[in-house]
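User
New here, help please:
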Amino acid sequence: MTLVPSGFIRIGTADLEYRMIGPQPLEAPTIVMLHEGLGSAALWGDFPDRLQAATGAGVFVYSRAGYGASSPVPLPRPLDYMRVEALEVLPKLLATIGFRRGVLLGHSDGASIAAIYAGGIQDHRVRAVALIAPHFVVEDISVASIAEIKTAYETTDLRAKLAPGSIRNSATGISRNTLPSSACRSRSSRVRTMSMAPCARSRSRERSATVPST
């Protein structure tokens, strides 16, 4: 299918909002971006545009069901929702957009989903996974932090600060201040996994990211 710059794509019973920046998946490598647990397509800010400009690849950004403008889902989410997203939803999405080769780039929950996909599906089209702050075990400090964020969201101006317009206009945040520029690489027979550390904007201008073209 030909992807317009922004719209909705039907996966199962959900309509998922997306942005397609740069060349189509049939024309060039594609970076598929998977957002964090409090994110959405819009909350990446201008990071996808900057990533596309730096790499020349197509960049596909979408909101999972229950996030952004995508279809809502019943709450609370099941404990295995990241596994479901990785092994049931993501394969359908990649097939629908005509993904041929490229990179999965995930942040937090999105990074864990990308890792589950890479480990659970032998997909030769995925040439690398880029993981920003992935999590693989549940720690007490994480559970406590989530509870604190929930309280702050309900009782402070955090809800307004997380609104897409506020994020796009902000001068702070990972979507505006960082580019993945350094990686610790470990090789397997199928996938090269990169654990990426964010860098300051001044450093990100000195380097560029590349995507395999074959």
Q: What stands out?
A: Residues 128 and 192 are 5 Å apart (CA to CA). Helices lie at 47-55, 81-97, 109-120, 140-155, 158-161, 164-169, 174-177, 201-204. DSSP finds eight helices and eight strands in the chain.
